[in-house]
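Hey, sorry to bother you again with one of my protein questions. I've been puzzling over a protein and I'd love to understand its fold better. Take your time with it, there's no hurry, and the full record follows here:
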Amino acid sequence: MESTTIEKMKKMYLRGMVTTYHEDIQTGSISKYTTSEYLSTLIDAEWESRQNRKIRNLKRAAKFRAPNALATNIDFTSPRGLDKDLINRLLELKYIKACQNIIITGSTGTGKSYLAQAFGNKACELMYRVLYFTISQFTEQIQAMKIQGNFHKWLTKIKKADLLIIDDFGITGIDSQTRKIFMDVIDYKYEKSSLIISSQLPVSAWHELIGEQTIADAILDRIVYSSHRIELQGESLRRKKKVVA
């Protein structure tokens, strides 16, 4: 009967229940519960299993470059001007509920990308839809989707994301096509969802980077004034890692 029950659970894709029920059968711990208590235990196990699968799927869909960038591993010991109180407040994700943005600037190797992706992973853990691109990937995707005929579907997916992360902003120039589409995305997401941008360049240099004054003014107006600013300092963290022969 127990084997039949487990097989039925598997066919109904009740994976959390299967695991818990099978383990409890093996250990004989079912006898500790009343019927209602054990039913609650099985439902809790299934709920947690499904939530964990959703989180894994959200993280996979985000396509982080560093999927193991986690909030719990953020280094606050290195002297780079990282405000722990500010980071912890932002990790509560109230900025997403308020449709605000985060701008992370600093020189190469100060941990901008890691920090941006740690925010992204945290958002996935709280069931927000996140998409991650470097600015180069963003430009390449525009071209690829246009060739494949999937551009509008791709653009709709970006617009619907609760959090869009653009990494390495300014590492390459922005062509006219990317600038126009970037403006379309920013305009759509303004006061509807959130954006994280990381860049080696200070915000004061973004106007020249974007080019075309009218579009640059519009983009910066929608991003900068509703953003939390994180300015990282100090030397590259990569230089501090010693290579052991």
